[in-house]
Amino acid sequence: MSKKVPNRILLTEDQIPKQWYNVRADMKEQPDPYINPGTMKPAVAEDFYPIFAEELCRQEFTMERYVDIPEEVLEYYKLYRPSPVIRAYNLERLLDTPAKIYYKYEGSNTSGSHKLNSAVPQVYYNKKQGIARITTETGAGQWGTALSMACAYFDMPLRIYMVKVSYEQKPYRKEVMHTYGADVFPSPSDTTNIGRAILAKDPGNTGSLGTAISEAVEMAVSTPNTRYSLGSVLNQVLLHQSIIGMEAKTQLEMVDEYPDYVIGCSGGGSNLGGLMSAFMQDKLTGKANAHFIAVEPSACPSFTRGVYAYDFCDVGHITPLAKMYTLGSSFIPTSIHAGGLRYHGMSPILSKLYHDGILDEARAVGQKDVFDAAVLFAKHESILPAPESAHAIKAAIDVALECKERGEAKTILFGLTGNGYFDLAAYASYNSGSMENYAPTDEDIEKGISEIIKVPGL
Amino acid sequence: MSKKVPNRILLTEDQIPKQWYNVRADMKEQPDPYINPGTMKPAVAEDFYPIFAEELCRQEFTMERYVDIPEEVLEYYKLYRPSPVIRAYNLERLLDTPAKIYYKYEGSNTSGSHKLNSAVPQVYYNKKQGIARITTETGAGQWGTALSMACAYFDMPLRIYMVKVSYEQKPYRKEVMHTYGADVFPSPSDTTNIGRAILAKDPGNTGSLGTAISEAVEMAVSTPNTRYSLGSVLNQVLLHQSIIGMEAKTQLEMVDEYPDYVIGCSGGGSNLGGLMSAFMQDKLTGKANAHFIAVEPSACPSFTRGVYAYDFCDVGHITPLAKMYTLGSSFIPTSIHAGGLRYHGMSPILSKLYHDGILDEARAVGQKDVFDAAVLFAKHESILPAPESAHAIKAAIDVALECKERGEAKTILFGLTGNGYFDLAAYASYNSGSMENYAPTDEDIEKGISEIIKVPGL
After folding, report:
1. A58-76 residue pLDDT tens
2. Average pLDDT over residues A170-190
3. 10 Å Cβ neighbour count for A317?
4. How far does A123 lie from chain B, in Å, by closest CA?
5. Does domain B8-16+69-112+234-450 have CATH number 3.20.20.80?
6. What are B213-224's pLDDT values in tens digits?
């Protein structure tokens, strides 16, 4: 069998993009502005200075199309980038589909995911500004691991609030962060007002991403020369993650391909936002017209069952309000195993693009179906995927089978955001046969949405 | 700062070697032959037919210099190879050494190590012969994981005997093998005569690699159409692993380098044997003269404190005898965290080369010192190393500092065999400050050696 396209399409380090791409520069309709909860007025960059390093605040609001990647950040990127685009020949054969399936694999660095792409610049800009310490939260642990690696490299102290249920169930994930020098606290903790208040009411509270965010932000704004860092949702994160899609576009061009479908899992949007970037630019500027699919867990269906409204990003309501698809900040998703996708809201950029029909489609998939796809993929493509990434695998398989039905040799690109080394308790649950698909009831969904605080005039 | 050499030196898939290199073809003095324990005569390939697939038996004895890699094996190699050679710029800066440090990284596939390089051909040849099932043992779990991945790919049933203490302490490692479809039994088990005998004498026995080998071999030879598979020690394994060194040599040539030092950790010899191959060929044929260093744990010092003698490869004494550096098959190393290096013996090829002074040097390093090196490396080079691999890091750092002392800009190549994702209990022990260096007493060593069965006439 002669193959024109290699299994792994590689770039050299001089092909790492030197600039990030800001998709907002090409959006004709802009996302609605953040609202400062103190004034209930649209926020400006300076409003975020107590929370984030100043350059990151500037990036949150910039309308520049391209932002230079600092040399120091590029030096770190070169330790693990460019990441490969891989042709899933075995999966294609197995599905007997005429579709061509490619995936961009971000899981071969120690953080195990794409999160390092934003962790490195975030730590760099804080270091450059002379910030003494960073705080953050982590749920599944991928973001905390990535940030602890970047902090070790730039010699920056880090405090991580880890959702308590993950802290207790994933001792090894915590140990990676310790090894890279981070302090890790289970959230809710007794180190913040918000944590103490929650524990006073409910001592057995096992935490949530929204609570951990509140604790990390409170600690940052109430401690001298300390800033907070967030691994998803924000415009700055999508900016940094644009490197994924820019590399992938170059890699597909090298084999004369352009994706008909771009598929990514979406929790807060960091991966899908990054993967789609360069292809979305083509769509926004009329150069090409890929079909974009966001894949979310049916257990936390922000796009498919949420509302497009202003909401807080955290449980404690101390962050700015963002206009986004949301299930309500009081919505606590069931503890599905794709912890990285358990977030009530969604990137404002992705939300706007979806609302306007430019991000074409969102699909919610069940946990059991996702693991079926994950194990099939592992056995035939060799990589054990993270449960988050497996959402995209599931959708890619479905699309490839739809192509087969229609006899169409379409080109599919999906994001394999990470590996599943730290998710083996979830695989154990799947292997034991006890895993089921799950979706919240209409009452659960309605309750979360009804508790969204209505902001007058918005 | 201008850099001529990139951080990561990459090859494309058409640069994967098409043949393995057999170092025995260039050894003027051959290793002493295996001894068939039934006849106490030198073994021939046919003696191994009940244990291994026939083509693997042939490879165990072949004197051909090159062996073609089957197309089907190359197809799998392309899923994760070629592996990168990485220049450790940050480590060099940190040590302020004039030495140049390169490492060949084999840890970015899901098995987490180089073991896949031999697992794939071993399963392939068994499948081709129509073998119905494979048995194996695993200690740290890297070999079992690699073999389960290869078995999933070639649709071959697999039974793994996992050293009981690892089975209980590493539930996640076991779960990876389950996910790829393997059956995993704790060893000693009640499924074999040897296991039952051990449990009858000592019900709380937590197992050893030597016991697990005995169980897996017994199961293979006593079950119809079943064969055994071993991930280290054997000539066939070093043959398959030669791909590591062949790639590395090409990669260094691309940046006009040749190693003055080649450094690898050595448990059974699979990694060092593979990494050194192409450079050892140059030494054996007078073309170049790298200095080779085997690094072993001071807790299991086969090279540095063992004897060069005929010994069994297993506790149950059902395998052939091999002439090798050994601590005696009854030697049970303390449960140091580099489980992959806890083996009483050593590859007969490496043993012979070391005995003849061609493999220049062996160093034993303490566990605490190894983890000091591992964490330093992780923080500055970003990759979290497997404890086994960290033995080579420790030695590479020492050599780089020796170069600094002497003001020599030597080129160092070491093997980073794997990542540490499944060794976080060990990192936790290190992080807690409770880890210490350890070496057996002279009495421990003498006891093991004194129990080696003396074979008359050998």
Report:
1. 999 999 999 999 999 999 9
2. 95
3. 16
4. 14
5. no
6. 999 999 999 999
Beta strands in A57-168 (DSSP E): 66-68, 85-87, 100-105, 133-138, 158-163
Chain B hits for A149, Cβ within 8 Å: 382
Task: Give the pLDDT band (50/70/90) at residue B77.
Answer: very high
ipTM: 0.95
In angstroms, the separation between the Cα of residue A325 and the nearest Cα of chain B is 35
Q: Give the residue from chain A lying closest to B106, CA to CA.
A: A108
pTM of the entire structure?
A: 0.96
Cα–chain center distance at A15: 24
pLDDT > 80? residue A2: no
Residues of chain B contacting residue A103, judged by C-beta atoms under 8 Å apart: none
Sheet holding B8-9, edge to edge: B8-9, B85-87, B100-105, B411-416, B261-265, B291-297, B361-365
Peptide bond into B188 cis (omega under 30): yes
Domain residue spans in chain B?
Answer: 8-16+69-112+234-450
- A-side interface with B, Cβ within 8 Å? 6-8, 10, 12-14, 76, 78-80, 86, 90, 108-110, 112, 149, 152-153, 171-172, 175-176, 178-181, 375, 378-384, 419, 421-422, 424-425, 427-428, 430-431
Q: Do A10 and B14 touch (CB under 8 A)?
A: no
CA A90 – CA A101 distance, rounded (Å): 10
Say how many CA atoms lie within 13 Å of A250 toward its Cβ.
16
> Which residues, other chains included, contact B10 with Cβ-Cβ below 8 Å and sequence gap of 6+?
A10, A12, B82, B84, B251
